[in-house]
Amino acid sequence: MKFLKTIIILLLLLGCSVKNNRMTEFDKILGKENNETLNLLVSEFENDFLKNKYPNLEIPNAYKRFLIETSEGRIDYTKAVTEKSKHIFNKSQLRLEIFCVADSTWIEANPWTDKNLLVKARTRCINPDGTFEIGAMEMPFYEKEISRDSILEKYMNFVKTNHNGKYLKALNSISDKSDFLSSFVEVKNAAGIIPFYMTAESLLDFNADLNDYFIRRIIVAELIN
Question: pLDDT tens digit string along 181-196?
Answer without folding.
Answer: 999 999 999 999 999 9
